[in-house]
Amino acid sequence: MRDLSLTQEYLLCVLRGKGKLSTYSIEKGMCLTGACVLELLMDGIITREEKDKLSVRTSLPDRKSYLRPVYSYIEQKQPVKFRKIMERNSVTFTDQNVNEMVDAVGKSLVDAGCATEEKGGLFGGKTIYVPDEKALDHVIQNIRAELLEEGELSEDIIALTALLDKSGELSRYFSAYEKKTLEARLKEIKENPQVEALQKVIEDIENLFMLMIVAAT
Amino acid sequence: MSRQRSMEAILASEYVTIGELTRLTGVRYSTLKFYTEEGFLPFEQEEEKLTRRYPREKTLERIAYIKALREEGKTIPQIHEILGVSHL
Fold first, then answer.
1. Which ipTM score applies to this complex?
2. How do the domains of chain B map onto residue ranges?
3. A137 close to B (CB below 8 A)
4. Architecture in CATH for domain B7-83
5. Nearest-CA distance from A21 to chain B in Å?
6. Which fold has domain A6-211?
7. Can the peptide bond before residue A79 be classed as cis, meaning omega within 30 degrees of 0?
8. Which residues of B touch A42 (CB under 8 A)?
9. Using the beta-carbon criterion (under 8 Å), do B18 and A150 form an inter-chain contact?
10. Which chain B residues are Cβ-neighbours of A158 within 8 angstroms?
11. pLDDT score, position A212
């Protein structure tokens, strides 16, 4: 089994059988952007400066080329606020920026043997990425193994859990019986001061999402 | 707080976590948890609330052996007897 990154695992978990993000699920697009930014931050490729602005620190390694759409934007606009990146990838009239991200990460999943590229959508003209069930199960078992066990959680699992929770996907993978343990773990994650970068991303996603709801009503 | 270990690092490690065992073997978490509770997979744990650590090589051999026994149609009580372990 190949190692997958935070962003790749997140997309694999939210694509489901349809192989694409629902047009109505703005949160998933926002969380995918959040995953890209968090991965760049955790790997030290970008850095968070004062006033929460992000800048490029090193060049993007070839093995991380699926992060290119977000990386290039930060490189062009640096220093840039996370919120600005988020707005670019969600509050637009077209899905172009989200699709670009999904294509980049989706293709990397195909290359890793964890998804297949197919044609789908309403008229069959859209490229979709259908997750390999075994690869998806592998990711889910890993999340379950950390969250339902005692002991320290890894940064990667904390980030993935928080993003899946935010996109309303997490509870699908836990039984009603396990919910109590899950909720205790989520509380632990939210209150953990060591994951400041993650909390900032989640906060920005929440605020932007609230603004969009208000704007739409 | 630490990052998740790469497969390369896990394969070079003497001890692994249950999450790492799911990555190494492809066996579902609930199955490994059940095997642990049945006493099939010995582990070390410094304190009650800390992460359980399994000796990698021995545990992988044990999981492969249990898998083979299950494929032969052995039941859990029979595996208990074969492995000579009692419940935790």
1. 0.75
2. 7-83
3. yes
4. Orthogonal Bundle (1.10)
5. 26
6. yeast vps74-n-term truncation variant fold (1.10.3630)
7. yes
8. 3
9. no
10. 1
11. 59
